[in-house]
Design a protein that fits this description.
By secondary structure, the chain is of the alpha/beta class. The protein contains nine helices and 15 strands.
């Protein structure tokens, strides 16, 4: 099975894809939009995307694309993020003057740069891409920050391992597929639900009137449905209006279906993003 990721081979998304879909062929993409386009066009059977990090929060672009595109979440996975300083063979830590990586990765390694004030953090488009760049160009004064898989992929040398500030650093990934039928909303999602699903992700929009959000959330409270996450995102092209993203701990059962039907009566827009099996919370 072909699985698209955003970023280069050797990235954390690559590692997550192989965990979620063993023996898959990973297809690297330069842009997140390209990942979703490949799923929609059918050139790949699925994609694995990071959706949330325990330190950096939600990946905003991916949250927006889940609403805008006809895809469906089939599974989630938590990956422990371990950052390493990786350079070309023969390069020493003392010779480094620059370290490249994705801005989020750099921000998660502040202590390393505090302890090495002579090394400049340089933003790059991808963690694994930074390693690929420094090794392909045989840079002697630069390294990348990425996972162990990037060092293996590009024959790099790990100069220092586990440099992330917080050892409880996890990223949550989604496995997404094309939403067959191409219809948004609640009407056609049930046939896409995998066996054993016990968690649901949705997005909805309400009118900006008093009590609108309270009424929307009450559809879950009335049925003793636990919400594990709620946050809002601005609606593009509609200033000061917001989409609410909610995860709740039920699969496709009667209570969940009734809650979603009730939500459809009080909200202007509802989309079921996915119904899938929850993974155990990282500790």
């Amino acid at each position: 099975m072909k699985v698209a990721i955003q970023g280069e081979l050797g990235s954390f998304s690559h590692e997550a894809a192989e965990q979620m879909s063993p023996r898959c062929t990973v297809v690297p993409c330069a842009r997140s939009a390209e990942v979703f386009e490949r799923v929609a066009q059918g050139s790949v059977q699925a994609a694995v995307i990071p959706i949330e990090n325990t330190l950096a929060g939600t990946v905003a672009e991916h949250a927006d694309l889940l609403v805008d595109r006809d895809v469906f979440i089939h599974a989630e996975y938590l990956l422990r993020i371990v950052h390493n300083v990786i350079a070309a063979p023969g390069v020493k830590l003392a010779s480094l003057r620059r370290v490249l990586s994705h801005p989020v990765a750099l921000d998660q390694c502040r202590d390393f740069f505090r302890l090495h004030p002579n090394i400049e953090p340089v933003p790059f488009y991808d963690t694994a891409g930074s390693v690929k760049h420094v090794i392909a160009n045989r840079l002697q004064d630069a390294a990348g920050i990425a996972g162990k898989k990037a060092a293996q992929q590009y024959s790099g040398k790990i100069l220092e391992a586990g440099i992330e500030d917080d050892k409880r650093n996890f990223t949550r990934f989604f496995l997404i597929r094309k939403a067959q039928g191409g219809k948004k909303g609640m009407a056609d999602y049930r046939r896409l639900v995998p066996r054993g699903a016990n968690k649901t992700s949705i997005a909805f929009h309400v009118k900006n009137v008093p009590g609108a959000l309270f009424k929307s959330l009450s559809v879950f409270a009335l049925r003793d449905i636990s919400l594990s996450k709620i946050e809002s995102r601005p609606m593009r092209g509609r200033p000061w209006e917001y989409v609410f993203y909610v995860d709740f701990l039920r699969g496709d059962d009667e209570a969940a279906r009734n809650a979603l039907l009730h939500l459809g009566e009080v909200a202007q827009f509802v989309k079921v993003l996915g119904v899938y099996r929850a993974v155990k919370t990282a500790s």
